[in-house]
Amino acid sequence: MALPINIADLIQGRAVESERIEYKQGWNPGPIYRSICAFANDFDDIGGGYIIVGIAEENGRPILPPVGLNEDEIDKILKEMVSFNNLINPAHHPKISVEEVQGKRILVIWAFAGDNRPYEVPDEIKAKEKKYNYYIRYGSSSIKPNKSQREELIALSGKTPFDDRPNTQVSFDEISLTLLRDYLRKVESKLLDSMDSLTKEQLLSQMQLLYGPPERRYPRNVALMMFTDNPEKYFPYSRVEIVHFPNGEADPEFFEAPNISGPVDFMIGRTLDYLRINVLKQMTRKVKGQAESIRVWNYPYEALEEVIANALYHRDYLTREPVEIRVYPDKLIILNYGGPDRSIKLNEFQKGSVFPRRYRNRRLGDFLKELDLTEGKATGIPTIRKVMKMNGSFMPEFITDENRSYFQVNIPVHPWFLEEMDKENQVDTLPHTIPHTIPHTIGLSEKQLEVLSLIQTNPRISIRKMSEILRLNNSTVVEHIDLLKEKMVLERVGGTRGYWKILIDEDD
User: InterPro entries given for it (predicted)?
Assistant: First the structure.
């Protein structure tokens, strides 16, 4: 049966990290089953791996076109694997798919992370005298663990990342076939062609989204995160909250965008759409002695892609706190709860040399990588730093605490936009007189006239500045402005970077 992954991308290492893929020219069950055991043990919680039989490799890269396997070989392999799988202790049954690549037949074995680690396997699966050992992945090799690794592997017994755990409070009937179909279509998996001939249970089982014996099947948490219309029903506060502070941190004035909720990939896409439309801006400047102008962004989109995807990928879905995005004139703050793995030193974040040992949500990462929504292992922070540098921006700040209870990313605005804000602030701080040129014949109060006079002098004046000059609090000034808008005397043109427009003149 087909696998829920794009096979062409898998072979080229585009959807899965290279250390999670092994290429085998032919069927050699000894080393293959040592690797199946190592992938099942998933020592680093990266999500198991794939063994591709029928393709040779050179320096870790596939040699194409494939060598391939003939039909008799494939039938023999499939029969042998039925018994070999039971020789793994405890038994482990990887998913298998026969694929055709460039006119040749190959076998793809998906050795997913097991639920009952640690696993052990005979050193030679076909030997008469079987000597069992544990195996783990070390880089791109399957090795016997040393004493400390063995102890750590045994300690991992029963410890399953949250997204791969079963949710015994929910029926798998709540999984949406529409969302499953849409996912398989997007990643161009051949499993899509089999959907109509499979029951929902068979489909979810092939995607390794169910847990338990046939009489008691429960969905894994990742299935609820990705393939239900409202994951917040199962994981409260699984949403993104965006708050704008147009006048900076010191000013209490703010406004909130509508909350963004839904499947994880949907939340990532909608959040990025909102930021692209409402926050991102481009500036062009002519450089003396250079024919081409330079264009920069206040925040490079590629950096936001990484930060937002990683915030929703690595958040703790047991913590009842949303992903928070705070938009200030001089920076963006993205905050998610459930910090990075304790194996990462705090100073590694600022250096950009972050190589986590384990992941909180290993399966979720696989789905997001298949959708091109996140980078491969340990590449997120280097990518963010790289695109910030290319944009001419200051480096972002990565913050967590000793308890790893949260992870915060501060992304500074490009310095050109800071310069523009400084110019506007200089205008705002000029001494104001209140010229009484606004007519009194339209029923405005004295304070409303004073507000209009300030705006007449400086159409870009902030509410905070008006409050300072008039000696009123922000909310009172906002009330006057709302009344002026109701009377069709005043309107706001543009957003936080816009200006006030008076709709009457002295001749009214």
Answer: RecG_C_sf, Schlafen_AlbA_2_dom, Schlafen_AlbA_2_dom_sf, WH-like_DNA-bd_sf, WH_DNA-bd_sf
Question: Distance (Å, rounded) from C-alpha 185 to C-alpha 300?
Answer: 29
Q: What is the rounded distance in angstroms from the CA atom of residue 203 to the CA atom of residue 144?
A: 34
pLDDT in tens, 428-485: 444 444 444 555 545 788 888 888 888 888 888 888 888 878 888 888 888 889 888 8
d(CA 477, CA 470): 9
Fill in the DSSP letter of residue 467: H
**CA-CA-CA-CA dihedral for 272, 273, 275, 279, to nearest 10:** 150
Output the pLDDT for position 290.
73
Structural contact between residues 214 and 235, judged by C-beta atoms closer than 8 angstroms: no
**The CA-based dihedral angle spanning residues 229, 234, 240, 243, taken in that order and rounded to the nearest 10 degrees:** 120
Report yes or no: 337 and 321 within 8 Å, Cβ to Cβ. yes
One DSSP character per residue, 316-355 reads -TTS---EEEEE-SSEEEEEEES---TTS-HHHHHHT---
Which residue segments constitute the domains of the chain, with CATH numbers given? 1-157 (3.30.950.30), 160-229 (no CATH), 239-418 (3.30.565.60), 429-502 (1.10.10.10)
**Helix, strand, coil percentages, rounded to 5, for the chain:** 35, 20, 45
Sequence-distant (6+) residues with CB within 8 A of 278 are 257, 495
Closest CA to 16 of 338, 464, 440, 367: 367
Q: What is the DSSP letter of 18?
A: G
Q: Residue 387: is its pLDDT beyond 90?
A: yes
Give the dihedral sign, CA 456/460/464/468: negative
